[in-house]
Amino acid sequence: MTDIALDAHRAPRDTGGVPALGGVKLTLALSGAVIVLMMLFGLTMKLAQGGLVAVEPIYFYQVMTAHGIGMVGAAGLTGAAIMWFFLARYVALTGWVYNAMLGLSLAGVVCILASIFVWGFAGAWTFLYPLPAQSGGVWEPGAAAIYLLGLMLVGVGFLLFYLETGRALIQRYGSLGRAMGWPLLLTGEQDDVPPPTVVASAVVTLFNGLGIVVGAAVIGISLINLYAPEFAIDALLAKNMIYFFGHVFINASIYMAVIAVYEIIPQYTGRPWKTSRVFVGAWAATLLFVLAVYPHHLLQDTVMPGWAMVVGQVVSYASGIPLIAVTTFSLIAYLHRSGMRWDLASALLVTGVFGWSAGSIPAILDSMIVVNKVMHNTLWVPGHFHFYLLIGEVAMVWGFMAWLTRESTGERLAGASATSYAIYFTGGLGFVLLFLIAGASSVPRRWAVHEPAWIGIDHISVVFAALAIAGFAMFLVRFVRRAGTAP
Amino acid sequence: MRIRPAIATALASTVVIVGGFLTIWQASDGFAAFTTETARRLAVERAPRPIPAVDIVTGTGMGVPLLSAGRPLLVEFVYTSCPTICTSLGQEFLQIQSALSARGLVDRVRLVSLSFDIERDTPARLAEYGRHHGADPVIWTVGRPRQANDLARLLVAFGVTVVPDGEGGFVHNAAIHYVGADGRLSRIFDLGEADSILAHLETAAP
Amino acid sequence: MTPTRSQPIFLAVCVAGLVSLASPLGRQFLEASLVTHMLVQMPLLVFIGMGFGRISSAAAAPYVATWNRGGSTGLLLTLGVAMFWMLPRAMDAALVDMRFEAAKFVSLPVAGVALAWSYGQASPIVKGVLNAHVVSALGVMGWAYMAAPVRLCNAYLASDQEMAGAGLLAAGAVTAAYFAMRIVFFGATRSRYIRTSSASDDASIVAY
């Protein structure tokens, strides 16, 4: 792999072959296709809200459910692909585990799609109690059960994935604490300091492993409740568990994708991304914050204990700082006067860090209780997560894909790649800003039918959304053509 | 013996899986009954159980037979000092009693509130319990077994478990038991299923 | 466990534990409440079995290794026994039917032996899946015992049931914290895996 050869100053371990490289590429191609399809679903929702296409509310909510779970799944899978690819440079991973994860995830996707489009489940991807069980006759409990079963399959797949990365990290570094670089943080020990990829992978392995176990428990509880409704679910407990799991999982996808920035940007700048004490400290703080931050989803649940709300607000406020700030400032420092060559991959990776940081600003605003009270049920919230997923996670993944298929080797940001990047970035940024504007104008989220006053924003959103989709789809076609031949 | 460990283990594991599945299948009546209470209900529906023909003491102090030939019974287990579930059981019986009177089905069935607290539930207290819940003696009998031996036989036959709650009261499976005209326990209903009970009486009784 | 001088003492402790649990007094004491029955007596029976298993695993290895590669047979047996005794009616039956009670005092220690003979043989992935399963199953069970609208066991009070549910949840939380601490600070899985994988290779050579 010539890219790696260029990178002789790091490459601590010869990547003679990433185990399950075929699986990694397949993940990227399939997830890319899923992302395009889910973007089209998103476009459909905007068209419906704008009154341009007639969609029955019942189908609107099916599409919304599929869009949500499809995007979360695609983000998780692409993040996992990036983490696997780069972690294999440092530790010995076993290929079949990755392929098992992919297989289980695909089986889960089949269940989930069938539950939605064959059996009509439309309870939103978060399956909040009591919706799955009490649909008012819109879908049978069986549909919800198949949806939950699909989620369980995906969860088992990811559990295997993290068990394998955890095993390999422990085998190489002795414990996850050492792999997270804690000896450096606590005692300044310079011996065998783990590279950034290892630190990030160890932290994600730990917190997402915990998230998945909680997710499995709440899915188990929901399944029992579907068939034995007399086993009542405490709605507040279920919401806590679901948001713990959901928030951790979607955060993990970005924290895994950012590994591509740590590994690829140094090739352009010629400056290795170092594991500093601050870096390790930021990741250690992230571990704590990711686990503790989810209560900001429950700020409107007045029955939650006061201290949990305070934790939610304070941690949300603080959580952006360590990692995003450290990554962003490091990136700026590494880029400064590096004479970096700008091509599709490097432009996208830098865009990804921008999208991630900028997208967290509306999130931090929303986590202030006074703002949350009026904003949480508006399009502001989807605005923030579309920002850091569409301009952040997707850009990082796309940058990785571009790098992987060697669009980066010598290819300037010109021609088709420049066009696809430009229309994606214009469309994506316009689209997410309109979400935020609509939220600031108090347009509610999750409404199938919009008031006439809101429709103008929807119409402009449709145009931007179409641009973003076209840009990403153009690239994806070229990726799939090249992926077979690239090393 | 030379047997490849992979095959041997696959065999042994399969035996364990199949054996475990069959054991749990058997122990849960085919995954239908995970609790003793569900199992009891399923068992009497599949194979109705004969109820011993004992005499019970009523509020008048007289002994009457628990079973009456040709007339089905609805039996609930109570104790008169019970502050909670037995009150609900009493209300349920009152509701059934009124419905039966309204439909002219009084001769179709007898209601029996059977106390298992044979030490404390004197005839006077049984009579008071009946008055308090509006029992019409023609259709609704409040009584208790004459002696401990009879009580034990009844509890076993009905499958009722009585546990002292540590505060002078008892905890027991609350249900309404249908004993057919043949003297066999054949259905067990939950509290709150008065409608199903009435429907069952109309179809099952001769 | 390598043969040491402390082994006879360890064995004696396990035997004494089993005898006192099985004695009428021990049974009466622990079976009076659902909490002690489910959360003290039954786990202790498994732990005692694990103690016997540790002592005997080296001696048993030549005979069972062929049939228990990667520990799968033994782990499945343990899971099966655990699932059986999770049926509320099985616990009820143990209180009134001596055959069930005897089966409990045999099967749970046997499950412990199987666990001790097999866990070390399992691959880290299998161990991880098992550990994660135990944590989430404790959570689901704890919720189920607390949320059940009816008494699950006829022989026990509803308040007992709620306490048992809370106890299961606490056990789940403690177990999760234990596993998390272990991988963060000690990475015990690693060293044990390396040791036992070579041991199981030896065992399969013997079996050939």
CATH architecture of chain A: Up-down Bundle
Low-confidence stretches of chain C: 188-208
Q: Residue ranges of chain A: pLDDT <50 for 5 or more in a row?
A: 1-15
Question: Helix tally of chain C?
Answer: 9
Number of domains of chain C: 1
Strand content of chain A: under 5%
> Which class of secondary structure composition applies to the elements of chain A?
mainly alpha
H/E series of chain C, N to C? Answer: HHHHHHHHH
Measured distance between first and last alpha carbons of chain A: 6 Å
- Helix amount of chain C, in percent? over 70%
Return the structural class of chain C.
mainly alpha
> What's the CATH class of chain A, please?
Mainly Alpha
Structure description:
The complex is a heterotrimer of chains A (487), B (206) and C (208). By secondary structure, chain A is an all-alpha fold. Chain A contains 16 helices and no strands. In chain A, helix 2 (21-49) runs parallel beside helix 4. Chain B has 206 residues and is of the alpha+beta class. Chain B has 2 domains: 1-31; 45-204, Glutaredoxin (3-Layer(aba) Sandwich). Chain B contains 6 helices and 10 strands; from the N terminus they run H-H-E-E-E-E-H-E-H-E-H-E-E-E-E-H. Chain B has an 8-stranded mixed beta sheet. The longest helix of chain C is centred in the N-terminal third of the chain and has 31 residues, at 34-64. Chain C has one domain (7-207). Classes of the chains: A mainly alpha (487), B alpha+beta (206), C mainly alpha (208).
What are the main properties of this structure?
heterotrimer; B: 206 residues; alpha+beta; Glutaredoxin; 2 domains; 8-stranded mixed beta sheet; two-stranded antiparallel sheet; 6 helices; C: 208 residues; mainly alpha; globular; disordered C terminus
